[in-house]
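Reply to dn_fold:

You asked what the input looked like. This is it:
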Amino acid sequence: MSATATSTPPPAAPKVDGGKGGRTRLSLPVILLIIAGALLALSAVRAITGAQDITSAGQISAALAMAVPIGLAGLGGLWAERAGVVNIGLEGMMILGTFFGAWAGWQTSPWLGVLAGVLGGMFGGLLHAVATVTFGVDHIISGIAINILAVGVTTYFAKLWFNSGEAASKGGSPKQSPPVDEITSVTIPGISDWLHSIEAHHWFFISDLAGVLGGVVTNLSLLTILAAVLFVLTFFVLWKTAFGLRLRSCGENPIAAESLGVNVYTYKYIAVIVSGGLAGLGGAFLSLVTSHIYNEGQTGGRGYIGLAAMIFGNWRPGGLAMGAGLFGFSDALQLRNGGESVHALLLLLVVVLAGLAAWKLYRKSFVPSVISAVIAVSVLLWYLSTETVPNEFVTATPYVVTLLVLSLSAQRLRMPKADGMRYRKGQGK
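and this is what came back:
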């Protein structure tokens, strides 16, 4: 007697981005071409307006210092969201990193401060993981709660630890810590001076390129180098290893991942704790490298800007790095002759908006094209009728850039499919 054997087909493997059917990604030559085009545009703006500082080594060095904490926060968000957990709590985890980094740094050494900052951020990540992964709390609510909790905890302990005893005698107060020793910075001898001499000639494009390279090789903190290494490691781990494939599958289709033997809870926990550690490292950078001191409120919303940089980068390390660099550049403008530099960049904004209007017209999107053209004309009139911009606008520049970039890039975004969704073990059975 014969029988027809029936079998259930195996569950489909979780589909993660990166296949041939996905959205086309930029290759390295195209990215370099975009960077060169941006530098060419900045060089033209500098030559036309006479705002020499926008491509100077000092501006680039300051932009790099501002970009690192934003990039680290965004990198933390990338780890969490690739595993399907939205991490609005990056700001709070950065706050924990700034406080505990400075607290340990002034008592011991800056590098132990870095470790303490990372551990403080990881503690915030652990709280977020417990709330969202184990108890299924809404990710946004949990993140906001951590932000509020971080402010309260650091305010309390700052009054307790920095306002008395040895800390107070060394400059501590309820709102700041005593100064922390500086982390070693490196300058490439010879090359830095040579690039500075080329920059001083103010040649078109060549001097601008020298200014950019000079800012990268002069007074570069070792923590900045570590941050760059972490970007490379993140790409390798998440896109080139089996561990990364499993982690990303949890953010795309956790039910299918579970059916293939992936412990979804474990990978989500790892991702969110790593996310908190990276955000804490970004906070420690602010207190140990940028200012050498903890100040209440010094994160200034950089956790949210890091999240915006991650979204701008389409949840990938390369795009995130470009977004962090853009936001860091705009943030650094307020530190160095901001009014004149921001006024000069209004001309660049006119060109970008005019190009966007032409592109939308070509794609037959008439309403966005008209809106972009009207805004471009308005900005041009603003530029021609003034010589500088108010300091209030200069201070708001990073946040304005954040809104503009997100609004212009929203149409090309592709977030992980299960990002922010509540997952319960065994729900696919």
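The radius of gyration is 24 Å.
Hope that clears it up.
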